[in-house]
Specification:
Layout (H helix, E strand, L loop, with lengths): L5 H7 L5 H8 L6 E3 L5 E3 L2 H5 L7 E7 L9 H14 L4 E5 L4 H5 L7 E2 L2 E4 L1 H5 L5 H21 L6 E6 L3 E3 L9 E3 L10 E3 L1 E3 L4 H8 L3 H10 L1 E5 L4 E3 L6 H8 L6 E5 L4 E4 L14 H10 L2 E5 L4 H16 L5 E6 L1 H7 L12 H21 L4 E6 L6 H13 L4 E4 L1 H4 L5 H11 L15 H12 L4 E4 L3 H10 L7 E4 L19 E10 L4 E6 L18 E2 L5 E2 L3
Parallel strand pairs: 3-16, 3-17, 4-15, 4-16, 8-11, 17-18, 18-19, 20-22, 21-23
Antiparallel strand pairs: 1-2, 2-14, 5-6, 6-14, 7-12, 9-10, 12-13, 14-15, 22-23, 24-25
Length: 558
């Protein structure tokens, strides 16, 4: 059987005008700023004006540790929102914007898949409404003002060897990880070591996603630490007087984007910090809008639950004062076989033994959600065309034997109709009382928080500080940042910091090699293993298959 590609399905659908989607969602024209016929920005003033309106239930979609191709969190999130509509519930979805890095790298497009997509798919995956360009420009304006301050006399006494702020570009470009700039003599700047982060790893991205309005945005930008002086005092964006101009670049990017699913469900797509090197959640304003306008707001957090869900709950929920009523953990037969030791080339072949061997990975994620965070949870088995009946039955049976709620999700093939069973289970779970807890309390020490995540979520024996981290933890404590939550930068492929340790490994330690405060975002980033803030392209990039014809129609975008 031949299947249509995601882009073919998206291009065949008849989209509704965005004004129609907005009206059905309860967004009045005065809040709407149209970008063509099928996308718009929504003024965050809507949240202020509708403050007295009750919020809907929040549903978090997360996943097991994925294969490089991903396990369908976005597809499941979109299909669940459509499935809720199919059973008569008013729903809205909140998603991250895709980065051009993975679009042109390994994964291809990231707007859902099959018949559970958000559209216009090509726009969302490429330039969309220009948010990422604005974030990159604001990031690089700060970098330019920092270097210009040094060039113009360095009144603040910035040590060029202690600059922590990097430039940014939204592309996988390993060549830019480490560079020397300012060459060419005195008129061309001060020569120094520099580098680029991918835009989705920029603190400006995190700031935008956590800011509540333009005033909060400016205050957060001003707190960003960009360097240290010769006597080790932090230098902030505010001291460089850059926050106002940066906010001017970001004023439109701060407004959530409204689009639609293939079935006309309103979808807010806004912000996109990576979950392996940043906090991995769409903006607080987009999530709040979805909650304000739907009985059920469905959102996702990036990569596996050990990364995205942990950060969603410990960082985003803590800062925004929100909490989910239920959690969906997406699992695929392919990924479970991968964790059971099957090579990538053989994942499409039936292998019940390997499938069962991979189940501990799923069960540890379930335990983390239900026992650490104390939230109700359902496993969504995201069905692929290559899955056999025996494989799907084995996963379902094993989960039920262990008392784990499970539902088959067929949204890729059937859209909202294939998400009805999952939607009904989610509605049931949302009515259950929960005693939500964080993994750690904010007022504990940095080391206690690192150990809490490592031992409770990853099941490591503990954390070992190596290299610069030993000195950095002391410095951060002396500067008064001990009370901030932790954002772990870790491989998405394993519970450990070694991507080759699949399943549910034990008897390992997490090595933290770098600790950096994101004072504007309001968390401490802990870099583990060999994680990098600027990814590289694979041997055969997805970009090689993307093209546009003489009619302007894009092909090969997933």
């Amino acid at each position: 059987m031949t299947y249509k590609s995601d882009i073919e399905i998206a291009q065949e659908c008849e989209k509704k005008r965005i004004t129609e989607i907005a009206a059905a969602a309860g967004v009045e024209d005065k809040y709407l700023e149209q970008y063509g016929n099928y996308k718009a920005k929504v003024d965050y003033a809507l949240l202020r004006d509708k403050a007295d309106q009750p919020d809907g239930k929040l549903i978090l979609v997360t996943a097991i540790n994925p294969t490089p191709a991903g396990e369908g969190k976005t597809t499941t999130t979109v299909g669940l929102a459509d499935g809720l509509r199919k059973i008569g519930k008013k729903s809205a979805v909140a998603l991250r914007e895709p980065s051009l890095g993975p679009v042109f790298g390994v994964k291809g497009g990231a707007a859902g898949g099959g018949y559970a997509q958000v559209v216009p798919m090509e726009d969302i995956n490429l330039h969309f409404t220009g948010d990422f360009h604005a974030i990159g420009a604001a990031n690089n304006l700060l970098a330019a003002m920092l270097d210009n301050h040094i060039q113009q006399g360095n009144e603040l006494g910035i040590d060029p060897r202690k600059i922590t702020w990097k430039r940014a570009v939204d592309m996988n470009d390993r060549q830019l990880r480490n560079i020397i700039d300012g060459l060419g003599g005195k008129p061309n700047g001060t020569p120094r070591e520099d580098g680029f982060d991918i835009t989705v790893a920029s603190e400006v991205m995190a700031v935008l996603c956590l800011a509540s309005d333009i005033i909060d945005l400016k205050e957060r930008l001003a707190r960003i630490i960009v360097a240290y002086t010769y006597d080790d005092k932090p230098v902030t964006c505010g001291q460089l007087k850059a926050q106002g101009a940066m906010a001017a670049l970001l004023k439109d990017a701060l407004k959530p984007n409204l689009v639609q699913t293939l079935e006309g469900t309103p979808a807010f797509i806004h912000g996109g910090p990576f979950a392996n090197i940043a906090h991995g959640c769409n903006s607080v304003t987009a999530t709040r809008m979805a909650m304000k306008l739907g009985e059920y707001a469905v959102t996702e957090a990036g990569f596996g639950a050990d990364l995205g869900a942990e950060k969603f709950l410990d960082i985003k929920c803590r800062m925004a004062g929100i909490q989910p009523s239920a959690v969906v953990i997406v699992a695929t037969v392919r990924a479970l076989k991968h964790h059971g030791g099957v090579a990538k080339a053989d994942l499409n072949n039936e292998n019940l033994e390997a499938l069962e061997a991979g189940l501990p990975n799923l069960l540890q994620h379930v335990e983390n959600v239900t026992k650490v965070f104390k939230l109700p949870c359902v496993v969504a088995i995201n069905a692929f065309p290559t899955d056999t009946e025996a494989e799907l039955k084995l996963v379902e049976d094993k989960c039920r034997q262990l008392g784990v709620n499970v539902a088959l999700s067929e949204v890729w093939a059937k859209g909202g109709e294939g998400g009805k069973a999952l939607a009904e289970e989610v509605v049931r779970l949302c009515e259950e009382p929960n005693e939500f807890e964080f993994c750690y309390e904010a007022d504990t020490t940095i080391m206690e928080k690192l150990n809490a995540i490592a031992t409770k979520i990853y099941r490591a024996d503990g954390v070992q500080l190596v290299g610069n981290a030993v000195k950095q933890i002391k410095q951060l404590e002396e500067l008064g940042f001990s009370n901030l939550p932790i954002c772990m930068a870790k491989t998405q492929y394993s519970f450990s910091d070694d991507q080759k340790k699949l399943g549910a490994p034990r008897n390992f330690t997490i090595q933290v090699r770098n600790l950096k405060v994101s004072a504007g975002a309001g968390f401490i980033v802990a870099l583990t293993g060999d994680i990098m803030t600027m990814p590289g392209l694979p041997k055969v990039p997805a970009a090689e298959k993307i093209d546009v014809d003489e009619f302007g129609v894009i092909h090969g975008l997933f």
